[in-house]
Design a protein that fits this description.
heterodimer; A: alpha+beta; 3 domains; 5-stranded mixed sheet; 7 helices; about 35% helix; disordered C terminus; B: Cytochrome C Oxidase, Chain A; globular
């Protein structure tokens, strides 16, 4: 039967919830549909037109039925909404200490980057039993990253980062599909997610790399001369970036913005969109010069910068433990917290 | 003059000379192309939409052939992408949206109201010409290489990346929209202003109520599609940044605007189907539709709520969690009026006199299939499940249960029900029942496996697919073959019946309704004298008793 599955494998922590809701809906709506068909067939046969039944009888069903089948379905439907929302919220809230992976969609391939610097195309290696958060964007059109065995999917947009997460519960090799039509080879924009035991995953991570994602970003930071303005000591023409991630920054127009992935991305591609208070709008755009993958490297670098000692502040975001090579080992060790 | 008429009259009256009706009133191509008679315009539409139904069906069949095997071995990917795009565009814009309103609505609505024609006969003819102009763009696109964006034209693919005929296609859809708007406007004014004396709102057949609701949706939603398509064309042709992020636009904005039309458009397609089902349920059970007012107002409720649920197409597209929750809740609410209709149709059959003629078979099929289509909509409205099945074959199966299992089943029911009125001839009953059976079996065999293969994980719009999906796809293709037979058969026997069909009297079904009070086919002016309505809608007990008494006398 493996060649002819009628139900997908369950390989993530949310998959049993989704399947539970799905089967609940199958049973409830199936029962109601079956009831309607049976009643229709029963009426169609019992009251079929015969010589002694040329006229319909004048009895009507009681009018109270009308209210019943208005109110009861409404209550049932609201129940379905609540159950669906409950599962949905569990899919949306990213657990703390999730392993961060970056994805880029382009016509017609999936590119993945790990914090430790590994790059993959159409393959994604993840450990079992550990929440994995994917931050993703598209280089061209809208794509959609779908892991059927994990029951999760999210559109990948060309204008901003989106995130999705899953926690694999089963080792093996599973499908990755692009679910949003994206042109000629849409059906070829497929790949595999390889779920590994943590020890195997560590061995895989030890494979060749050009340094951590953050250190790759640091090189780009110098290559694009970002460091000439965004200086470490805060005296540059641009705001200091060290320790800035996750903080709230006042803007020139009086509003505030939380410095997150999308703000950093926007500030590189459209620097004039939100000007930090106290700075001149002098930064040139890097749109068309920095690729999506390099953006991710720069992002990882900016996120990795520790706050200067004088600030004395604690790191604001606990949800990014894997920003550089040194923290990766420790975060991999925390995977044992998951049963 | 008067004296000769009186003398000649007795000779003419019972003679072999055919009675004048709208078909033999005038002859010649121009008498059709320049007609202002709503019945003839309906026939023009009938021919046009049937052609597009066949074209769209051929695209579908070629796709199903390709999907017999997991490898993309029959067409190139580009060709396959054009096939599903053109299938969707042709079926939705050139068949489903105009089909019931412009064919059956045009023909029957004025007669149901006891009117001589629609309020604006010239506008009605203009709407057909506009449809033909729009459809011509569609044909040109098909001949000159096609389009590969899907019927949804999502940006930025459609504006910056596709190098197929996007501009001409969207222009065609844009133009066709005006044809819908004119039809909707005509219906609204006609229903308000041209009801026969005594035909109060609550004496209207439920067909009219549903058409009224449809017309409102057409009038309010179609302009939004027009605006959206214009913006798309402006961006594609002139490079003005609206949706493309490279030009500073927002691609998800397009999806909001597109679905703000296209979700109500689902109701533009299904409400007229419900309209026909209400008529047929009454006629073939010989009862007043149970809960008349609930059924009537549920059409208006669907029209209203249908505008508030568009973002349920965007649950994975990047809307906020709060939006998703609100739109999921509203989507659950819009299911209620549809459920009310299904329950009321079912209850109408209680202690009825249920005929098993072909239209009723289609009605039974409609109720069964629409129920499946409706409840699987609940799966998609439930956020937790939608994330998984969105853009999978589950969605494909769901909307085909609504569009094909619902709208087209209803269309077939209506075509058989009013065929004697439209042509004056009966279709062959046994062949028609056979085709209804083929359609029902073929339809389920085609689309039910798609629910399963979608949940297992097959994405839609895939030219090639993983080998484990093959068995269900083969079933689906087998079903499509049966379904095609079921649709081809009526084309043959309807044509046959034009010449050889038994002559239908004024009222072959023993049905209540003004359309059955005039001759078949009706005279050009519909009624020789304006009817005065003194009875409630579907007043079968009184009507049938009167009919039986006259038979006994």
């Amino acid at each position: 039967m493996t060649d002819f599955p009628l139900f997908p494998e369950q390989a993530s922590s949310v998959a049993p919830l989704v399947d539970g809701l799905y089967l609940f809906l199958v049973v409830v709506t199936g029962a109601v549909s079956l009831l309607i068909w049976l009643v229709i067939f029963y009426f169609a046969i019992k009251y079929r037109r015969r010589p002694d039944n040329e006229l319909a009888q004048e009895q009507e069903p009681p009018a109270i039925l009308e209210m019943t089948w208005t109110v009861v379905p409404l209550i049932v439907f609201i129940g379905i909404f609540v159950a669906g929302a409950w599962v949905f919220l569990r899919m949306q809230v990213v657990p703390r200490n999730a392993l961060e992976v970056y994805a880029t969609g382009r016509q017609w391939m999936w590119k993945f980057q790990h914090p430790t610097g590994q790059r993959e195309i159409n393959e994604l290696h993840v450990p079992v039993g550990r929440a994995v958060k994917i931050t993703m964007a598209s280089e061209d059109v809208i794509h959609s990253l779908w892991f059927p065995v994990f029951r999760v999917k999210a559109d990948v947009l060309p204008n901003r980062y989106r995130t999705m997460w899953f926690e694999a519960t089963k080792t093996g090799r599973f499908h990755i599909f692009c679910a949003e039509y994206c042109g000629t080879s849409h059906s070829g924009m497929i790949g595999s997610v390889i779920v590994m035991e943590p020890t195997d995953y560590q061995r895989w991570l030890a494979g060749g790399t050009e340094g951590s994602l953050a250190s790759q970003g640091e090189k780009l930071f110098q290559k694009y001369a970002c460091n000439t303005c965004h200086m470490d000591n805060g005296t540059g023409r641009g705001p200091m970036l060290a320790g800035a991630y996750g903080k709230t920054r006042p803007l020139a127009d009086g509003s505030n913005v939380v410095i997150d992935d999308n703000y950093i991305r926007e500030s590189i591609l459209h620097p004039q969109a939100k000007i930090a208070a106290g700075f001149q709008p002098v930064m040139p755009t890097f749109q068309g010069q920095v690729s999506e993958e390099d953006l991710i490297r720069l992002l990882a670098y900016v996120k990795s910068l520790p706050a200067p000692q004088t600030a004395g502040a604690t790191p604001a975001q606990p949800v990014e433990p894997a920003a550089n090579a040194s923290t990766t080992t420790s975060s991999a060790a925390t995977s044992t917290t998951n049963p | 003059m008067t004296s000769t008429t009186i003398e000649d009259a007795p000779f003419i009256e019972p003679s072999t000379k055919e009675r004048r009706n709208y078909l033999n009133d005038e002859y010649g191509v121009l008498s059709w192309l320049l007609t202002k008679d709503h019945k003839r315009i309906a026939i023009l539409y009938l021919f046009s939409v049937t052609i597009f139904f066949v074209v769209g069906g051929i695209f579908a069949f070629l796709m199903r052939l390709e999907l017999l095997t997991p490898e993309g071995d029959m067409f190139t990917s580009d060709t396959y992408n054009k096939l599903f795009s053109l299938h969707g565009i042709v079926m939705i814009f050139f068949f489903l949206i105009p089909a019931i309103p412009a064919v059956m609505g045009n023909f029957i609505l004025p007669i149901m109201l006891g009117a001589k024609d629609l309020a604006f006969p010239k506008l009605n003819l203009a709407s057909w010409y506009i449809y033909i102009i729009g459809a011509t763009f569609g044909v040109i696109v098909i001949i000159t290489g096609g389009v590969d964006t899907g019927w949804t034209f999502y940006t930025p693919y459609s504006t910056q990346y596709s190098n197929t005929k996007v501009f001409a296609t969207t222009l065609g859809a844009f133009i066709t929209g005006f044809s819908s708007i004119l039809t909707g406007l005509n219906f609204l004014v006609t229903i308000h202003r041209m009801r026969a004396p005594g035909l109060t709102w609550f004496r209207l057949p439920l067909f009219v109520w549903a058409m009224y609701a449809t017309s409102i949706v057409i009038m309010l939603a179609t302009p939004v599609l027009a605006i959206t398509l214009v913006m798309l064309m402006v961006e594609r042709a002139l490079g003005v940044g609206i949706f493309d992020p490279a030009l500073g636009g927002d691609p998800v904005l397009y999806q909001h605007m597109f679905w703000f039309y296209s979700h109500p458009a689902v109701y533009i397609m299904i409400l007229p189907g419900m309209a026909i089902i209400s008529e047929c349920v009454a006629a073939f059970t010989r009862k007043k539709v149970f809960g008349y007012k609930f059924v009537a107002f549920s059409s208006l409720a669907i029209a209203f709520l249908g505008f508030l649920v568009w973002a349920h197409h965007l649950f994975v597209a990047g809307i906020s969690v709060y939006s998703a929750l609100i739109f999921s809740f509203l989507s659950m609410c819009v299911a209620v009026p549809s459920a009310i209709k299904v329950f009321n149709w079912t209850a109408t059959m209680y202690k009825a006199s249920v005929s098993w003629n072909t239209p009723m078979l289609y009605v039974l099929g409609f109720i069964g299939l629409f129920t499946i289509g409706g409840v699987t909509g609940l799966f998609l409205g439930a956020l937790g499940v939608d994330i998984h099945v969105h853009d999978s074959y589950f969605v494909v199966a769901h909307f085909h249960y609504i569009m094909v299992g619902g709208t087209i089943m209803a269309y077939m029911a209506g075509l058989h029900y009013w065929w004697p009125k439209i042509t004056g001839r009966m279709y062959p009953e046994w062949w028609a029942r056979l085709s209804a059976l083929l359609v029902f079996v073929g339809f389920n065999l085609t689309f039910f496996p798609q629910f399963l293969v979608g949940y297992v994980g097959m994405p839609r719009r895939y030219h090639a697919y993983a080998p484990e999906f093959q068995v269900l796809n083969v079933l689906s293709t087998a079903g499509a073959t049966v379904l095609a037979m079921g649709y081809l058969l009526p084309m043959v026997y309807f044509a046959w019946s034009l010449k050889f069909g038994r002559k239908a009297g004024s009222n072959p079904w023993g049905a209540v309704g003004l359309e059955w009070a005039t001759t078949s086919p009706p005279p050009k002016e519909n009624f020789h004298e304006t009817p005065v309505v003194t009875w409630e809608a579907y007043d079968y007990p009184a009507f049938l008793k009167a009919m039986q008494e006259t038979q006994h006398v």
